[in-house]
Amino acid sequence: MIRPHRNLVTLGEFIIDKQADFPYAKGELSSLLSDISIAAKIVNREVNKAGLVNILGEAGSENIQGESQKKLDVFANEQFLAALASGGECAGVASEENDEIILFDGNASSGRYIVAMDPLDGSSNIDVNVSVGTIFSIYRRKTKNGPATVDDFLQYGSDQVAAGYIVYGSSTMLVYTTGNGVNGFTLDPSIGEFCLSHPDMRIPKGGNIYSVNQGNFVHFPEGVKRYIKNLQIDDKANKKPYTLRYIGSLVSDFHRNLIKGGIYIYPTTLSSPKGKLRLMYECNPMAMIVEQAGGKATDGFRDILEIQPTDIHQRCSLFIGSSAMVDESMDYMKQYSDANLQPTYVTSKES
């Protein structure tokens, strides 16, 4: 593709240039990613002016997890659903905000893809002006005809054809992968376009940042407790103690660690024995991104991408980030955690 002499590469141009990476899609996946970027711009606009309009606070409803929905949660969900339905490439959506899968009518019903998404991650931060985000995961349908089914969604994370997130912060960024590296795009408000700002993103092999809700320390598994204590020792030769950074928004914490190196941990606790994050909406897409960037993602014992979902709202523990740090955390989990308390997911496609 011949462009004028300029350094600016928009998301649309980049997607077209890279379409050869997924030739089987015949442009459909490209169109789907463009639909997601359009919805992201609309949500970004509302996030940026949320304090000026009646869009802060509670919506007066709860999602399937029993969590209070914020008004902006509901708005973001509606915008992404509308964009994906109108594009015609997506047959249905599983959203953290909806009890059941959402199936589209008309031309979209025969779409070749389905999407799992967390439309507004970290929504508890909305009212205090702290970064929030969107996470999305794209799969090819397993069924060929008729409406999509739940089985189309219950696929291994390793079957994802694309995954990404949008972080709404001091600048708004869209980061995504189609299984051939990770690239980041920053929204330029002057032209209303996402522009390539972080090509071929790679996470450092190690780091000195750990992100965990340390207020729950007393409820963590013994392996996590021991690992965190090791990060806090005074060991200048190994640049310890490490720095604790925890925002409370997976997208924001992950994004920082992706760039600087670090580990994000959301383990099981006494009150959440299966973990709290959602496998399909949060863990799988972030795992695909971090592995494409050279990092790792596990539940403390197993590769996230090899866990078989059995429910669209299935919960999971998450250890994600720089490969050396994730490996070390797994060593602690295996050494100190009771085997009887380890997760019992199906983790092999041959199982």
- Give the helix proportion (percent range): 25-40%
Query: Over the alpha carbons, how many angstroms does the gyration radius reach?
Result: 20 Å
Strand order of the largest sheet: 4-3-5-6-7-8-9-10
CATH topology of the largest domain: Fructose-1,6-Bisphosphatase, Chain A, domain 1
Number of strands: 17
Unreliable stretches covering 5 or more consecutive residues: none
Query: What is the general shape?
Result: globular
Please name the fourth-level CATH homologous superfamily of the largest domain: Fructose-1,6-Bisphosphatase, subunit A, domain 1
SSE succession:
HHEEHEEEEHEEEEEHEHEEHEEEH
Q: Which descriptors would you attach to this protein?
A:
about 350 residues; alpha+beta; Fructose-1,6-Bisphosphatase, Chain A, domain 1; D-Maltodextrin-Binding Protein, domain 2; 2 domains; 8-stranded mixed sheet; 5-stranded mixed sheet; 8 helices
Describe this structure in words.
With 351 residues, this protein is α+β, with helices and mostly antiparallel strands. The chain is built from eight helices and 17 strands. The chain has helices spanning 11-17, 28-48, 71-87, 150-153, 222-231, 250-260, 279-292, 323-336, and strands at residues 58-62, 68-70, 90-95, 102-103, 113-121, 132-140, 162-168, 172-177, 182-188, 193-198, 209-211, 243-244, 263-266, 277-278, 296-298, 315-316, 318-321. The strands form four sheets. An eight-stranded mixed β-sheet has the order 4-3-5-6-7-8-9-10, sandwiched between helices. β9 and β10 form a beta hairpin. It is globular, with a radius of gyration of 20 Å.
